[in-house]
Amino acid sequence: MTAFELLQIFLLLIVGHALADYPLQGEFLARAKNRFAPVPGVPWYQALGAHALIHGGVVGVITGSLLLGALEVASHMLIDDRKCAGRISYNTDQLLHVLCKLLWVAALLLWGRLP
């Protein structure tokens, strides 16, 4: 992959993140994913999982890699759960998500197309 292609993928991942974290998350998932302040009758892990799956789907589609999509799901769940726990700030949460996108691009640079 060329440097330009990798830059394009990174920028698309950032746009995809913004879409998945704001309009595609919505008020319901933003509240329901928090196990420390649960929405009555809504399993927090389903809401957090759904939110993370949206992100993983975006990463998978953009990178063409199911593996990177799955890694995004796992990392997004861990990062968001730490934010909900109050262990990291909103800004740290967003920084960690962007760093994950850089990691996915680095993986593509090192290993090319991944399964």
Q: Which helices and strands, and how do they pair?
A:
Layout: H1 3-21, H2 26-32, H3 44-63, H4 66-84, H5 90-111
Mean of all residue-level pLDDT scores = 96
- In whole angstroms, the N-to-C terminal distance is 16 Å
Low-confidence stretches: none
Order of secondary-structure elements: HHHHH
Shape: elongated
Class computed from helices, strands and strand pairing: mainly alpha
> How large is the share of residues in beta strands?
under 5%
| Number of β-strand runs | 0
Largest sheet: none
Textual characterization of the structure:
This protein is mostly helical. Helices cover 76% and strands 0% of the residues. The protein has helices at 3-21, 26-32, 44-63, 66-84, 90-111. Helix 1 (3-21) runs antiparallel to helix 3 (44-63). The protein is elongated. The model has no long low-confidence stretch (mean pLDDT 96).
Task: Compose a concise summary of this entry.
By secondary structure, the protein is mainly alpha-helical. It has five helices and no strands.
Essential attributes:
5 helices, single chain, 0% strand, 115 residues, elongated, 76% helix, mainly alpha
